[in-house]
Amino acid sequence: MRRADQGNRTSTVLGRRLGGELLRLRDAAGKTQQQAAQILSATGTKVVKMERGWVPMRDPDIRALCEFYGQTDAKEVASLLSLAKLDRERRKAKGWWNQYPELRAMAEYVALEDVATSVCTWQLAIVPGLLQTPDYARALAVGNGVWDDVKEIEPFVEARMARQARLGGDQPLQLWAVLHEGVLCQLVGGRDVMRAQLGHLLDMARRPNVRLQVVPYLAGAHPGMTSAFTIVSFGEPGAMDVVHMDTTSSTLWFESESDAAHHNGTFDRIMRMGLATRSSASLIDGIRKEL
Q1: Is 96-290 a domain of CATH 3.30.870.10?
Q2: E-strand spans in 58-108?
Q3: pLDDT value, residue 239
Q4: CA–CA gap between residue 196 and residue 198 (Å, rounded)
Q5: Which residues are CB-neighbours of 239 under 8 A, at least 6 positions away?
Q6: Closest alpha carbon to 130 in 118, 145, 147
Q7: Quick one: which of 15, 62, 103, 120 is 20 to 30 A from 114 by CA?
Q8: What gap in Å lies between CA 106 and CA 232, rounded to an integer?
Q9: Given a cut of 60, is residue 195 above it in pLDDT?
Q10: Where are the domains of the chain?
Q11: Which letter does DSSP use for residue 207 in this model?
Q12: pLDDT for res 185
């Protein structure tokens, strides 16, 4: 687990994930950083920067290190090369989100969402940003009360709506959202805003790339009661997952393979306690009509 803020060093979530995998391979092989540096005809400092995700990595360097560490599984090597490519693209990207300073701490997450293949999100209190209406997003921003200048709220709402373009297009993001029933009952923005938001959820749930489930109050105790989280994936399930979590004071990333596996397991257990998609839609529609 690491904070997104890495000071003035250029570090990315994908870079740290890749560096962590190379460090794991080096430790397993019993090699030193200096030995790895010799294989690359480089300095030990370069290896340190690579393993900490501070620099983009070249494919020849990754192949050389994998061979030196005894990693002969072609699929595993290809996975690392794919991750390196994504990281290089992420570092070079001048995405639309850069024009919205209001995104602040969310910029790194949005950049990853832009290159991800799928997102699984568990939410206890709010509708996921990818499924929010403008009025709902605006009401959340006002309710948070963290804006120094209220004029920043409208660009923030605009940026949030721009994110939703990832759910369309030729290769849309695959979204699996599991919400606690309390998300549907919290009157964010009042009855009219919430009624429209619930209707929007129903519309989005009809898309082939969106799966929406609700964990009802009647489910009782469940493994997701302590915190909300989002799993961002970049390839085959479990191959390149990182986990994003917001707190009241910081953004946290869980980047190791074991952390990803733990949260995937937790998400699976939460999902199994949720209603089926059709029953979830019926519950959402029932709450909407009561409003």
Answers
A1: yes
A2: none
A3: 55
A4: 5
A5: 79, 233
A6: 118
A7: 62
A8: 14
A9: yes
A10: 10-92, 96-290
A11: S
A12: 95
Angle among Cα 184, 212, 207 to the nearest 5 degrees reads 120
**In contact, 245 and 254? CB cutoff 8 Å:** yes
- How long is the chain? 291
pLDDT at position 97: 67
Tokens read off for 179: 């919400």
Reported as type and span, the H/E element at residue 210 is strand 210-215
CATH superfamily of 10-92: lambda repressor-like DNA-binding domains (1.10.260.40)
What is the distance, to the nearest Å, from the Cα of residue 39 to the centroid of all Cα atoms in its chain?
Answer: 34
Angle CA 113–111–1, to nearest 5: 80
Average model confidence (pLDDT) across the chain: 87
Task: Note the pLDDT of residue 112.
Answer: 81
What is the pTM (predicted TM-score) of this model? Answer: 0.79
Instruction: Please give the Cα distance from 180 to 126 (Å, whole number).
Output: 9
224, with CB counted inside 10 A (0-12, 13-18, 19+), is buried
Of 137 and 241, more confident: 137
Which pair of structure tokens corresponds to residue 101?
């300073």
Q: Which residues of 248-275 are buried (b: 16+ CB within 10 A; e: fewer)?
A: eeebbbbbbeeebeebbebbeebbebbb
pLDDT, one tens digit per residue, over 279-289 is 999 999 999 99
Identify any residues that bridge with 42 across adjacent strands, giving them in sequence order: none
